[in-house]
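Let us work through a complete example step by step.
Step 1: write down the sequence.
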Amino acid sequence: MVTRRVPGRQGLLENLLAHRVDPSGVPLIAPLARTAPFTALLDALRAAPEPRLLDGDLVTTVGDGGQRVRHLRGVVDVLRRAAERGALPSELAVPWAAAAYRAELAGQEARGRVGDERAHRRGEDPL
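Step 2: predict the structure and record it as tokens.
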């Protein structure tokens, strides 16, 4: 992996370490309060059931190594129907589609902050 430095930018880890040395003099670029929605999403994803492996006659494989591509039989038609009906594949009785996993994100305040941040970026008053 190639790392490229951007002039005037500081990495998050570098910023965190500098903040630990001088908390009052070096503010965090991404304080915990601003990352709460992302953290809540990660927690919900970790609690989600494991994805199901699709194989057998549903999947065809073409190519080898880095050129290998797996095709899910009928997926284009399923996605087209899902888009037309505004439904998930599981709501269309597709046999390989798992039911939707729903999770309550921790803290309603976290959702509000995301909206507030978006409004702030657009120059609007979030309140």
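Step 3: interpret the result. Strands lie at 59-62, 69-72.
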